[in-house]
Amino acid sequence: MWDLCCSLIHSFPIIRFVKAAREYLDKDAWVFLLGVFVISRLFFFGVGTAAAALLPQMPADLSDHHRIPVDFFELWARWDGGWYMEIASHGYRLEMIDATNFFPLYPLLIRSGTLLGGSPALWGVLISLVACFFAFFFLYRIANELWGEHTARATTLCFAFFPAAIFLNAVYTEALFVALSAGSFWAARVRRNLLLAGVLGALAAATRNVGVLLLIPLASEWLRNRREFGWRGLWLGLVPVGLLAYTAFLWSRFGDPFIGVVRQEITWGRRLQDPLTTLDRAWKEAGAGLKQVLDPAPIFLDQTTLGPSLDAGALLNFALLMLFCLLLVAGVPLLPKGLWVYTLLVVLIPVLNPAARQALESIWRYELDAFAIFFVLGWILSRAPLRRPTLWFWLLISGAIGAAEAALFVTGRWVV
Questions:
Q1: DSSP secondary structure string, 33-67?
Q2: In this model, does residue 362 exceed pLDDT 80?
Q3: Residue 235 has pLDDT above 70, yes or no
Q4: In terms of pLDDT, which residue wins out, 309 or 171?
Q5: Half-sphere exposure of residue 156, counting CA atoms within 13 Å on the CB side?
Q6: What pLDDT is stored for residue 98 in this prediction?
Q7: Measured between alpha carbons, how far is 190 from 386 in angstroms, rounded to an integer?
Q8: Most buried in the list 70, 162, 215, 265, measured by CB within 10 Å?
Protein backbone atom coordinates (compact mmCIF):
# COMPACT_ATOMS: atom_id res chain seq x y z
CA MET A 1 0.00 0.00 0.00
CA TRP A 2 2.84 2.39 0.85
CA ASP A 3 4.47 1.73 -2.53
CA LEU A 4 1.16 2.41 -4.27
CA CYS A 5 0.69 5.69 -2.38
CA CYS A 6 4.23 6.78 -3.28
CA SER A 7 3.60 5.88 -6.91
CA LEU A 8 0.40 7.95 -6.95
CA ILE A 9 2.15 10.94 -5.35
CA HIS A 10 5.01 10.84 -7.81
CA SER A 11 2.54 10.40 -10.65
CA PHE A 12 0.57 13.52 -9.71
CA PRO A 13 0.35 15.63 -12.90
CA ILE A 14 2.04 18.78 -11.57
CA ILE A 15 4.96 16.83 -10.08
CA ARG A 16 5.42 14.83 -13.27
CA PHE A 17 5.14 18.02 -15.31
CA VAL A 18 7.87 19.77 -13.31
CA LYS A 19 10.17 16.76 -13.55
CA ALA A 20 9.59 16.41 -17.28
CA ALA A 21 10.15 20.12 -17.83
CA ARG A 22 13.44 19.99 -15.97
CA GLU A 23 14.63 16.88 -17.79
CA TYR A 24 13.47 17.50 -21.33
CA LEU A 25 13.01 21.21 -22.02
CA ASP A 26 16.02 23.39 -22.61
CA LYS A 27 16.02 27.13 -22.09
CA ASP A 28 15.13 27.93 -25.71
CA ALA A 29 12.10 25.66 -25.59
CA TRP A 30 10.91 27.27 -22.36
CA VAL A 31 11.33 30.74 -23.84
CA PHE A 32 9.40 29.67 -26.93
CA LEU A 33 6.50 28.13 -24.98
CA LEU A 34 6.20 31.05 -22.59
CA GLY A 35 6.43 33.51 -25.47
CA VAL A 36 3.70 31.79 -27.49
CA PHE A 37 1.49 31.55 -24.42
CA VAL A 38 1.84 35.21 -23.44
CA ILE A 39 1.62 36.65 -26.96
CA SER A 40 -1.34 34.53 -28.07
CA ARG A 41 -3.37 35.16 -24.90
CA LEU A 42 -2.62 38.89 -24.94
CA PHE A 43 -3.62 38.97 -28.60
CA PHE A 44 -7.06 37.48 -27.98
CA PHE A 45 -7.59 39.38 -24.74
CA GLY A 46 -6.58 42.63 -26.46
CA VAL A 47 -8.87 42.13 -29.44
CA GLY A 48 -11.74 41.19 -27.13
CA THR A 49 -11.26 44.23 -24.91
CA ALA A 50 -11.13 46.58 -27.89
CA ALA A 51 -14.20 45.00 -29.47
CA ALA A 52 -16.18 45.27 -26.22
CA ALA A 53 -15.36 48.98 -26.09
CA LEU A 54 -15.99 49.79 -29.75
CA LEU A 55 -18.76 47.48 -30.97
CA PRO A 56 -22.41 47.51 -29.87
CA GLN A 57 -23.41 44.77 -27.43
CA MET A 58 -26.26 42.43 -28.25
CA PRO A 59 -29.31 42.88 -25.99
CA ALA A 60 -29.50 40.46 -23.08
CA ASP A 61 -32.68 38.84 -24.34
CA LEU A 62 -30.89 37.63 -27.49
CA SER A 63 -27.82 36.10 -25.88
CA ASP A 64 -26.18 34.81 -22.73
CA HIS A 65 -29.32 33.63 -20.94
CA HIS A 66 -30.31 37.26 -20.17
CA ARG A 67 -26.92 38.11 -18.67
CA ILE A 68 -24.91 41.26 -19.29
CA PRO A 69 -21.18 41.14 -18.40
CA VAL A 70 -20.25 43.32 -15.46
CA ASP A 71 -16.45 43.10 -15.67
CA PHE A 72 -13.55 41.99 -17.88
CA PHE A 73 -13.72 38.35 -16.84
CA GLU A 74 -17.44 38.03 -17.54
CA LEU A 75 -16.76 39.12 -21.12
CA TRP A 76 -15.14 35.68 -21.45
CA ALA A 77 -18.01 33.84 -19.75
CA ARG A 78 -20.50 34.14 -22.60
CA TRP A 79 -22.89 31.43 -23.77
CA ASP A 80 -21.81 28.07 -22.32
CA GLY A 81 -19.71 29.98 -19.81
CA GLY A 82 -22.95 31.00 -18.14
CA TRP A 83 -23.86 27.34 -17.63
CA TYR A 84 -20.50 26.56 -16.04
CA MET A 85 -20.77 29.52 -13.67
CA GLU A 86 -24.32 28.48 -12.75
CA ILE A 87 -23.17 24.94 -11.94
CA ALA A 88 -20.17 26.23 -10.00
CA SER A 89 -22.40 28.54 -7.96
CA HIS A 90 -25.47 26.36 -7.36
CA GLY A 91 -24.66 22.80 -8.46
CA TYR A 92 -26.92 20.61 -10.57
CA ARG A 93 -30.55 21.45 -9.78
CA LEU A 94 -33.88 20.25 -11.10
CA GLU A 95 -34.76 23.86 -12.01
CA MET A 96 -31.69 23.95 -14.31
CA ILE A 97 -31.94 20.40 -15.62
CA ASP A 98 -30.32 21.35 -18.94
CA ALA A 99 -27.08 21.92 -17.02
CA THR A 100 -26.68 18.13 -16.80
CA ASN A 101 -25.36 18.28 -20.37
CA PHE A 102 -22.22 19.97 -18.98
CA PHE A 103 -19.70 17.70 -17.29
CA PRO A 104 -18.61 18.43 -13.70
CA LEU A 105 -14.80 18.68 -13.42
CA TYR A 106 -14.43 22.22 -14.77
CA PRO A 107 -17.24 23.79 -12.69
CA LEU A 108 -15.96 21.86 -9.67
CA LEU A 109 -12.54 23.47 -10.11
CA ILE A 110 -14.20 26.88 -10.46
CA ARG A 111 -16.20 26.25 -7.29
CA SER A 112 -13.01 25.28 -5.43
CA GLY A 113 -11.35 28.49 -6.55
CA THR A 114 -14.20 30.71 -5.41
CA LEU A 115 -13.80 29.32 -1.89
CA LEU A 116 -10.54 31.30 -1.82
CA GLY A 117 -12.32 34.45 -2.97
CA GLY A 118 -13.14 35.95 -6.35
CA SER A 119 -15.94 35.45 -8.84
CA PRO A 120 -16.69 32.28 -10.85
CA ALA A 121 -15.80 34.17 -14.03
CA LEU A 122 -12.37 35.11 -12.63
CA TRP A 123 -11.60 31.54 -11.65
CA GLY A 124 -12.97 30.16 -14.89
CA VAL A 125 -10.56 32.32 -16.89
CA LEU A 126 -7.61 31.55 -14.58
CA ILE A 127 -8.20 27.80 -14.76
CA SER A 128 -8.44 27.97 -18.54
CA LEU A 129 -5.19 29.94 -18.74
CA VAL A 130 -3.28 27.47 -16.57
CA ALA A 131 -4.70 24.55 -18.56
CA CYS A 132 -3.87 26.35 -21.80
CA PHE A 133 -0.17 26.48 -20.91
CA PHE A 134 -0.20 22.78 -19.96
CA ALA A 135 -1.84 22.03 -23.31
CA PHE A 136 0.92 23.90 -25.14
CA PHE A 137 3.56 21.99 -23.18
CA PHE A 138 2.07 18.56 -23.86
CA LEU A 139 1.51 19.24 -27.57
CA TYR A 140 5.08 20.52 -27.90
CA ARG A 141 6.56 17.55 -26.09
CA ILE A 142 4.63 14.93 -28.07
CA ALA A 143 5.44 16.57 -31.41
CA ASN A 144 9.09 17.03 -30.47
CA GLU A 145 9.35 13.38 -29.44
CA LEU A 146 7.80 12.06 -32.66
CA TRP A 147 8.82 14.54 -35.37
CA GLY A 148 11.38 16.98 -33.99
CA GLU A 149 11.65 20.59 -32.89
CA HIS A 150 10.46 22.29 -36.09
CA THR A 151 7.18 20.36 -36.07
CA ALA A 152 6.79 20.93 -32.33
CA ARG A 153 7.08 24.69 -32.74
CA ALA A 154 4.76 24.83 -35.76
CA THR A 155 2.20 22.63 -33.96
CA THR A 156 2.18 24.87 -30.89
CA LEU A 157 1.84 28.04 -32.95
CA CYS A 158 -1.00 26.62 -35.08
CA PHE A 159 -2.89 25.53 -31.98
CA ALA A 160 -2.29 28.82 -30.12
CA PHE A 161 -3.59 30.98 -32.99
CA PHE A 162 -6.30 28.67 -34.32
CA PRO A 163 -9.59 30.62 -34.67
CA ALA A 164 -11.24 28.59 -31.88
CA ALA A 165 -8.27 29.33 -29.59
CA ILE A 166 -10.31 32.21 -28.14
CA PHE A 167 -11.94 29.53 -25.97
CA LEU A 168 -8.58 28.66 -24.42
CA ASN A 169 -8.87 31.79 -22.26
CA ALA A 170 -12.67 31.73 -21.86
CA VAL A 171 -14.91 30.06 -19.28
CA TYR A 172 -15.11 26.93 -21.42
CA THR A 173 -13.72 23.40 -21.05
CA GLU A 174 -11.59 23.37 -24.20
CA ALA A 175 -8.25 24.28 -22.57
CA LEU A 176 -8.76 21.88 -19.67
CA PHE A 177 -9.83 19.01 -21.90
CA VAL A 178 -6.93 19.38 -24.35
CA ALA A 179 -4.46 19.64 -21.45
CA LEU A 180 -5.81 16.45 -19.87
CA SER A 181 -6.28 14.44 -23.08
CA ALA A 182 -2.95 15.43 -24.65
CA GLY A 183 -1.35 14.98 -21.23
CA SER A 184 -2.76 11.47 -21.00
CA PHE A 185 -1.25 10.50 -24.37
CA TRP A 186 2.03 12.22 -23.42
CA ALA A 187 2.18 10.20 -20.21
CA ALA A 188 1.83 6.92 -22.11
CA ARG A 189 3.90 7.70 -25.20
CA VAL A 190 6.65 9.95 -23.84
CA ARG A 191 6.82 9.30 -20.09
CA ARG A 192 5.91 5.60 -20.30
CA ASN A 193 3.70 5.98 -17.24
CA LEU A 194 0.34 4.25 -17.66
CA LEU A 195 -0.84 5.14 -14.15
CA LEU A 196 -0.48 8.83 -14.92
CA ALA A 197 -2.07 8.28 -18.34
CA GLY A 198 -5.06 6.57 -16.71
CA VAL A 199 -5.51 9.31 -14.09
CA LEU A 200 -5.35 12.11 -16.66
CA GLY A 201 -7.67 10.15 -18.96
CA ALA A 202 -10.21 9.75 -16.15
CA LEU A 203 -10.10 13.50 -15.48
CA ALA A 204 -10.57 14.16 -19.21
CA ALA A 205 -13.63 11.88 -19.22
CA ALA A 206 -15.03 13.90 -16.31
CA THR A 207 -14.54 17.07 -18.40
CA ARG A 208 -16.09 16.01 -21.72
CA ASN A 209 -17.80 12.78 -22.71
CA VAL A 210 -15.40 12.13 -25.61
CA GLY A 211 -12.64 11.76 -23.04
CA VAL A 212 -13.56 8.10 -22.67
CA LEU A 213 -12.34 7.58 -26.25
CA LEU A 214 -8.78 8.08 -24.98
CA LEU A 215 -8.91 4.36 -24.23
CA ILE A 216 -8.23 3.81 -27.95
CA PRO A 217 -4.82 5.53 -28.30
CA LEU A 218 -3.77 4.47 -24.79
CA ALA A 219 -4.66 0.83 -25.38
CA SER A 220 -2.83 1.03 -28.70
CA GLU A 221 0.29 2.25 -26.88
CA TRP A 222 0.00 -0.63 -24.42
CA LEU A 223 -0.37 -3.20 -27.21
CA ARG A 224 2.60 -1.74 -29.07
CA ASN A 225 4.76 -1.99 -25.94
CA ARG A 226 3.03 -4.78 -24.02
CA ARG A 227 6.29 -6.49 -23.09
CA GLU A 228 7.54 -3.28 -21.53
CA PHE A 229 4.28 -2.27 -19.86
CA GLY A 230 2.99 -5.73 -18.86
CA TRP A 231 0.28 -5.69 -16.18
CA ARG A 232 0.49 -1.90 -15.90
CA GLY A 233 -1.97 -1.79 -18.79
CA LEU A 234 -4.63 -2.36 -16.16
CA TRP A 235 -4.21 1.28 -15.10
CA LEU A 236 -5.92 2.27 -18.36
CA GLY A 237 -9.12 0.96 -16.82
CA LEU A 238 -9.18 4.23 -14.87
CA VAL A 239 -10.12 6.21 -18.00
CA PRO A 240 -13.88 5.42 -17.98
CA VAL A 241 -14.10 6.17 -14.24
CA GLY A 242 -14.62 9.90 -14.89
CA LEU A 243 -17.63 9.25 -17.11
CA LEU A 244 -19.03 6.48 -14.90
CA ALA A 245 -18.74 8.65 -11.79
CA TYR A 246 -20.76 11.41 -13.43
CA THR A 247 -23.47 9.07 -14.71
CA ALA A 248 -23.69 7.52 -11.23
CA PHE A 249 -24.15 10.99 -9.77
CA LEU A 250 -26.92 11.79 -12.28
CA TRP A 251 -28.62 8.51 -11.45
CA SER A 252 -28.59 9.24 -7.73
CA ARG A 253 -29.64 12.90 -8.13
CA PHE A 254 -32.18 12.71 -10.97
CA GLY A 255 -32.97 9.00 -11.30
CA ASP A 256 -31.59 8.82 -14.85
CA PRO A 257 -27.86 8.30 -15.63
CA PHE A 258 -28.42 9.55 -19.20
CA ILE A 259 -30.45 12.66 -18.40
CA GLY A 260 -27.76 14.86 -19.97
CA VAL A 261 -28.09 13.06 -23.31
CA VAL A 262 -31.87 13.37 -23.13
CA ARG A 263 -31.72 17.09 -22.37
CA GLN A 264 -29.25 17.66 -25.19
CA GLU A 265 -31.73 16.17 -27.63
CA ILE A 266 -34.68 18.10 -26.20
CA THR A 267 -33.00 21.49 -25.80
CA TRP A 268 -30.47 21.58 -28.64
CA GLY A 269 -32.12 19.09 -30.96
CA ARG A 270 -29.05 16.88 -31.26
CA ARG A 271 -29.81 13.34 -32.41
CA LEU A 272 -28.13 10.68 -34.52
CA GLN A 273 -28.35 11.33 -38.23
CA ASP A 274 -26.93 10.04 -41.49
CA PRO A 275 -23.66 11.99 -42.05
CA LEU A 276 -24.46 12.55 -45.74
CA THR A 277 -27.70 14.26 -44.75
CA THR A 278 -25.79 16.41 -42.28
CA LEU A 279 -23.20 17.39 -44.90
CA ASP A 280 -25.87 18.22 -47.48
CA ARG A 281 -27.58 20.50 -44.99
CA ALA A 282 -24.26 22.04 -43.95
CA TRP A 283 -23.37 22.73 -47.59
CA LYS A 284 -26.61 24.66 -48.10
CA GLU A 285 -26.08 26.60 -44.87
CA ALA A 286 -22.53 27.42 -45.97
CA GLY A 287 -23.93 28.92 -49.18
CA ALA A 288 -26.10 31.30 -47.16
CA GLY A 289 -23.09 32.04 -44.97
CA LEU A 290 -20.99 33.03 -47.99
CA LYS A 291 -23.58 35.65 -48.97
CA GLN A 292 -23.44 37.04 -45.43
CA VAL A 293 -19.62 37.14 -45.34
CA LEU A 294 -19.68 39.21 -48.53
CA ASP A 295 -21.73 41.78 -46.59
CA PRO A 296 -19.95 41.64 -43.19
CA ALA A 297 -21.24 44.81 -41.51
CA PRO A 298 -24.42 43.22 -40.02
CA ILE A 299 -22.33 40.40 -38.54
CA PHE A 300 -20.69 42.87 -36.14
CA LEU A 301 -23.26 45.67 -35.94
CA ASP A 302 -26.77 44.18 -36.10
CA GLN A 303 -28.42 44.27 -32.65
CA THR A 304 -31.79 42.82 -33.64
CA THR A 305 -30.94 39.20 -34.45
CA LEU A 306 -28.19 36.58 -34.21
CA GLY A 307 -28.90 35.60 -37.82
CA PRO A 308 -25.89 37.27 -39.51
CA SER A 309 -23.34 35.75 -37.14
CA LEU A 310 -25.09 32.36 -37.33
CA ASP A 311 -24.99 32.41 -41.14
CA ALA A 312 -21.33 33.42 -41.26
CA GLY A 313 -20.53 30.73 -38.72
CA ALA A 314 -22.06 28.06 -40.93
CA LEU A 315 -19.51 28.86 -43.64
CA LEU A 316 -16.60 28.72 -41.22
CA ASN A 317 -17.82 25.45 -39.71
CA PHE A 318 -18.08 23.80 -43.10
CA ALA A 319 -14.69 25.10 -44.29
CA LEU A 320 -12.91 23.95 -41.14
CA LEU A 321 -14.56 20.52 -41.28
CA MET A 322 -13.26 20.09 -44.84
CA LEU A 323 -9.79 21.18 -43.69
CA PHE A 324 -9.84 18.72 -40.81
CA CYS A 325 -10.94 15.90 -43.13
CA LEU A 326 -8.01 16.65 -45.46
CA LEU A 327 -5.62 16.69 -42.51
CA LEU A 328 -7.06 13.38 -41.31
CA VAL A 329 -6.24 11.81 -44.67
CA ALA A 330 -2.75 13.30 -44.60
CA GLY A 331 -2.33 12.00 -41.05
CA VAL A 332 -2.87 8.32 -41.92
CA PRO A 333 0.84 7.56 -42.46
CA LEU A 334 1.97 10.15 -39.91
CA LEU A 335 0.04 9.68 -36.67
CA PRO A 336 0.24 6.65 -34.36
CA LYS A 337 -2.65 4.41 -35.41
CA GLY A 338 -4.57 4.53 -32.14
CA LEU A 339 -4.29 8.32 -31.99
CA TRP A 340 -5.50 8.58 -35.59
CA VAL A 341 -8.61 6.49 -34.81
CA TYR A 342 -9.32 8.65 -31.74
CA THR A 343 -8.98 11.79 -33.87
CA LEU A 344 -11.28 10.40 -36.57
CA LEU A 345 -14.00 9.66 -34.01
CA VAL A 346 -13.73 13.09 -32.38
CA VAL A 347 -14.07 14.76 -35.79
CA LEU A 348 -16.92 12.45 -36.85
CA ILE A 349 -19.14 12.57 -33.74
CA PRO A 350 -20.49 16.14 -34.30
CA VAL A 351 -21.30 15.18 -37.90
CA LEU A 352 -23.28 12.17 -36.70
CA ASN A 353 -25.00 14.23 -34.01
CA PRO A 354 -26.02 17.54 -35.66
CA ALA A 355 -27.93 20.32 -33.92
CA ALA A 356 -31.40 21.44 -34.93
CA ARG A 357 -30.49 25.11 -35.40
CA GLN A 358 -27.42 24.53 -37.54
CA ALA A 359 -26.03 21.25 -38.88
CA LEU A 360 -22.42 21.77 -37.79
CA GLU A 361 -23.09 24.11 -34.89
CA SER A 362 -19.95 24.63 -32.75
CA ILE A 363 -18.00 21.95 -34.62
CA TRP A 364 -14.94 24.18 -35.03
CA ARG A 365 -14.74 24.43 -31.22
CA TYR A 366 -15.34 20.71 -30.69
CA GLU A 367 -12.56 19.92 -33.13
CA LEU A 368 -10.03 21.43 -30.74
CA ASP A 369 -10.52 18.16 -28.85
CA ALA A 370 -8.96 16.40 -31.86
CA PHE A 371 -5.59 17.79 -30.84
CA ALA A 372 -3.63 15.38 -33.06
CA ILE A 373 -4.88 17.29 -36.13
CA PHE A 374 -2.48 20.05 -35.14
CA PHE A 375 0.45 17.62 -35.29
CA VAL A 376 -0.40 16.97 -38.93
CA LEU A 377 -0.83 20.67 -39.68
CA GLY A 378 2.42 21.49 -37.87
CA TRP A 379 4.28 18.72 -39.72
CA ILE A 380 3.05 19.98 -43.12
CA LEU A 381 3.83 23.62 -42.43
CA SER A 382 7.25 22.83 -40.96
CA ARG A 383 8.20 21.00 -44.17
CA ALA A 384 6.53 23.23 -46.73
CA PRO A 385 8.56 25.10 -49.37
CA LEU A 386 9.46 28.53 -48.01
CA ARG A 387 8.72 27.14 -44.56
CA ARG A 388 8.71 30.34 -42.52
CA PRO A 389 6.67 32.50 -44.94
CA THR A 390 4.15 29.67 -45.34
CA LEU A 391 3.79 29.26 -41.57
CA TRP A 392 3.46 32.98 -40.97
CA PHE A 393 0.89 33.30 -43.77
CA TRP A 394 -1.18 30.54 -42.15
CA LEU A 395 -0.92 32.19 -38.74
CA LEU A 396 -1.95 35.55 -40.21
CA ILE A 397 -5.13 34.11 -41.76
CA SER A 398 -5.94 31.95 -38.75
CA GLY A 399 -5.29 34.75 -36.28
CA ALA A 400 -7.40 37.22 -38.27
CA ILE A 401 -10.39 34.84 -38.21
CA GLY A 402 -9.79 34.29 -34.50
CA ALA A 403 -9.78 38.04 -33.90
CA ALA A 404 -13.14 38.37 -35.66
CA GLU A 405 -14.54 35.51 -33.57
CA ALA A 406 -13.24 37.11 -30.36
CA ALA A 407 -15.01 40.35 -31.29
CA LEU A 408 -18.28 38.48 -31.85
CA PHE A 409 -17.93 36.49 -28.64
CA VAL A 410 -17.38 39.38 -26.22
CA THR A 411 -20.23 41.41 -27.75
CA GLY A 412 -22.75 38.59 -27.23
CA ARG A 413 -23.05 37.51 -30.86
CA TRP A 414 -23.08 33.87 -31.87
CA VAL A 415 -19.65 32.33 -32.25
CA VAL A 416 -19.82 29.07 -34.12
A1: HHHHHHHHHHHHHHHHHHHHHHSPPPPGGGSGGG-
A2: yes
A3: yes
A4: 171
A5: 31
A6: 87
A7: 31
A8: 162
